Amino acid sequence: MDAEEIARSAALERKHWWYAARRALVRRTVRDWPAGRAVDVGCGMGGNTVVLREMGWQAIGVEYTSTGADIAASRGIPVVQGDGRALPVADASVDLVMSTDAWEHIDDDVAVAAETARVLRPGGRVLVAVPAGMALWSGHDVALGHVRRYERDQLADLVRGAGLVIDDLWSWNVLLRPVVRARRRNKDAPESEMEAVNPVLNAGLRAAVGMERVLPLKRLPGVSLVVVAHKP
After folding, report:
1. Cβ neighbours of residue 157 under 8 Å, at least 6 residues apart?
2. What is the Cα–Cα distance from 178 to 77, expressed in whole angstroms?
3. What is the domain class of 3-231 according to CATH?
4. Per-domain residue ranges of the chain
């Protein structure tokens, strides 16, 4: 993701339905976990790092781009500019590694998974979210600098290959997948969909994603995949 796209995302992050829904996902997933030390790999502008800190975690961000790291730092978020393939974090030193929509940007995701396992303490947890399904590949992925979208088995094999134990793996943003697929059909030119949304539509889209908490949709195809795992 280039500097211009990062700056655009930063302007949208606080109110845009997708970012808000992702923050809610993080909050809901970790709410019953005892807070400890955490690292948010590929933290971007730090919105999800803030969620962890608000919940009592000693959380820092690791961000590859100088633009993202500078924006996060300007918001008072502890952030280190670094590479997910060689994390600037000591062995077995953190209780949680979180990475939301970052692995798909990295060519060597095997190295990222291995680094995730390396820095975790035994019993430490992993929370990773990635875009799902190459059937949804479009110019949006190109514009955001994605290398891939993940299939369920592909993500599971990657996490297990790093020596981690999967506790749950589910689809997210299922209800809106048909809309996303229709919008992205036959779109090959780079074109990001991260743009301002009418407030009424924004609220409706956020509500649609929120409904998934009470509907049995987690095993159906979605726009994203989420995996929770731990280090044995």
Report:
1. none
2. 36
3. alpha beta
4. 3-231
